Structure formats: structure tokens, C-alpha cells
Amino acid sequence: MTEHDLVVRNGTLVIPGIGRVAADVGILGDRIVTLGTSLSGKEVYDATGKVVLPGIFDPHVHIGNELSFEEEAESETRAAILGGVTTIGIFIRSLEDSYFQHLPAFRAAMDERAYVDSIFHPQIFTDQQIDEMPAYTRDYGIRSYKFYMSGMPGIVKSVGDDVLLRGFRQVASIGADVIACVHCETGALVARAREELQKNRPQGTLADWEDAHPADAEALAIRTAAYLAKIAGVHLYVVHVSSKQGIAAVKLARADGTALTAETITPFLGISSDDANGFLAKMVPPVRTPEHRAALWAAVRDGTLDTVGTDNTSRRRASKNPQGGLHGARPGHPSLGTHLPVLLHHGRLHDIPLERLVDMATRKPAQTYGLYPRKGTIAPGSDADLVIVDLDLEKVVEPSALRGMSDFSPFEGRLLRGWPVATIKGGRIVARDGDIVAPPSGRYLTRTAP
Ligand SMILES: [Zn+2]
What we know:
Blueprint: E1 4-9, E2 12-15, E3 19-22, E4 24-28, E5 31-36, E6 41-46, E7 51-54, E8 56-62, H1 69-82, E9 85-90, H2 103-113, E10 117-120, H3 127-140, E11 144-148, H4 161-174, E12 179-183, H5 187-200, H6 206-209, H7 215-232, E13 235-238, H8 244-255, E14 260-265, H9 266-270, H10 290-302, E15 307-309, E16 312-313, H11 317-320, H12 325-328, H13 339-349, H14 354-361, H15 363-368, E17 386-396, H16 399-402, E18 415-425, E19 428-432, E20 435-436
Parallel strand pairs: 1-6, 2-7, 8-9, 8-16, 9-10, 11-12, 12-13, 13-14, 14-15
Antiparallel strand pairs: 1-4, 2-3, 4-5, 7-17, 17-18, 18-19, 19-20
The protein binds zinc ion.
Zinc ion (ZN) binds at residues 60, 62, 91, 311.
Pfam family, one: Amidohydro_1
InterPro entries: Amidohydro-rel, Metal-dep_hydrolase_composite, Metal_Hydrolase, Metallo-dep_Hydrolases_sf
Organism: Pseudolabrys taiwanensis
């Protein structure tokens, strides 16, 4: 009988595509090797009364918007691993330069300082970057690229439909599995709406921010991107779907035969625009009315939405500047540490089966980004990345306990039910009862054609 290095004993496994299984998990080195009963190991974690999930895969993360990439590679992945997240997809950014100038440093940071494994989705802005995509894929195993149809003043540029089509064709030429991720909002509609809001409503509430980013601008952009993706023959991944109209546009595009994967994020599932935390929840696209939020939950239930991420963009309260109000508060907030509890808490309130939530947060992103079954399941041969969850544990969100660089959370003060009690990454218990108990062991993951 195998003597395992680590055994997770007596838990209820939630295995995407299979369901709940009462079994022990036997780990040797950094891999799962056995599922069974009465397994023995040098170290045993007793998961009696808990559920054991595959490590959470957050496909939508921004790192280094406030501190350096290197610093946030450590601080924000520390918050991630405490929250049960073991793999992240990072939207790396270079507005002008070739990514060859930045990839070595980004990769080194994730290899040397991160608590979680990572993949990169470079944000594409220039013709040179489009020309170099096949080389990024060859040298760094990158198989997903990101395009912004609507930028953010001072942060990100918008790209026009010409760049989008040229970029899509390049993505498709690299391989059928390579993904075009798109921030879908029609830039001109957003720019006009934002200008008018500034003029007509210099002061306002979080709810007013939605007027700067009309839901119809999202829906129109999804239809445009889907049309271009179809003629380019590329797999389209719509990031952070936020609205009822956006959901309808996703359905139309699929009915029209577009290969499309749709993502939403836990801030949209957990926060409405009437939230008491106000501008702490300001982001782009915006959190919307309860009606939109209900439409997102319906799309979680009926399978229209495939994956769930965070759009984590950590800031400190001083630079977030919530007192700056409707136009002065900056978009973005930390959401890695609350990702899983928000999903579990609100998923339960909306009566969504746990299996469905776990699938969206683990297997679906792993499949989409070419890492399944290494990630996204609990099976012999898979990486030993697991999160052990107490579904009944209730905690009030306290920013300092999340252990990222931020001193606020858009969920602060909120009582959430369902928290991780331990996270195993690469066969080692790294987080336990809210504390980090092992050094970082994350790696940048290169991907290969299937
Ligand atoms: Zn984002």
C-alpha cells in the first residue's frame, strides 16, 4: 500500500462532472495519486464534515496596478491562496512596448514570489504586438490574448474593430485552442455616456456610475466581437459579462454559431449598485441594479455563463479615493480573498447547486485555458491543488484578515457563510485557518497545443 506524503481524510469531494464523493485523497509529491478509503500518509488532514474542492482557478486577475508587479505577485497571491484560489490568469499590460521587454520579469516574479500558479493573457494594443503573438506563444506558452473594445482613461487604450479583426485572425492562425479574450463595451458609446454624466451629474452615488457604462454598450460590443470572431474563426471569451442585455447578446451569438465562452465575476454576483459600501465597489464595467444581478444568477443557473473570476485590481483606500465621489473615486478593488466565500454564500441564497458553482470556478476555466485535467479536478495524476471548505463557517469580511495589500474590500462588513479552512497547493498545506503556513511555491505555467 502506498505511503502518501499527505492524505486528506474523511472529506466530501466535489468533483466537477462527477459530483460528490466520500473519499480520502492521497498525495505523493505535488500530485494526487489515489482516491480511496482509509488511506495512510506521513501527514493527515482531517476533513470530517468539510467539502474538498479542486483548487479555485480565477481566470481574470490584474496584478501590479498599484504597487509593482513583483510586490503584488506576492501580496495578492497571498490573499488568493488564503481564499482557496490556487491558479490565476493574469492580464499583463504593455501599452506600447513589445512584450519581449516585459515577459522575462513578469515570469520571474510569478516563479519566485507567487503563492499560486499562473498563466498570462497579454493585452494587445499595437500592430507589432499582433505580429509577435506567434513568438509569444512559442517562447512563453501563451495561448490566450486580450483585447479592449473600450479602454479606461489614463489606464488602458481602446482598440478599433480593425485591430480586433486583425488580432482575431492572428490568434486563429496560431491554433484552434488559442483564445481571444475581449472586454466588450463599445468605446464610443461609453466615452459619450461618461462625458454626459460628468456634465449633468458632477456628484452622485454608485448607482449613477452605471450610466457611464450603459448595458447596451456591452451588448452591442458582444455582438460586434462575436461577428468578427465568427469570420476570423476564433474562439471568443467574453470577460466580465455584467448585464441582462449582455446575457441576451451571448445567447444570440451562440445561436448564430459563434464559439463563445462567457465569464462573469463575483463582484457582479455579490454586489448591487445600491450597496452600502458605495464607491468602494466602483469598477469598470460597473456593478449594476438588482435586476441585472438577478439576470446573471439566472445565467449561472441555466448554463449561459461558463466561468467565474474576479477582475481583481487591488488598490489602497487612499488611492481608491472613495470620498472623491462619482467621478473622483478610482475603479478597481481587491476581490481574490473573497472570491470563493462570495460565490458560496450567494450561490446558496440563489439555490444554485454547489456542483455547478464549483464547475464554473475550477473545471471550466481549466478547460478553456488548456490546463485540464492537470487543474480543475480531483483525480489521480492531477496537481495536488485542493481547497477544504467549511460550508457553515460564517465570518464578517475584515480587510486586514484577507492579507493582500489593500486596506479595504468592497465586501467589508459583510457576513458571508462558507469559507476555506485550508488550501493545499502542489501537495503542501499552504494556508490553514486563515494563516499562511508555508512559503510561496507558485509557478508560471507554459501551455502547449492539445
Ligand atoms: Zn479585468
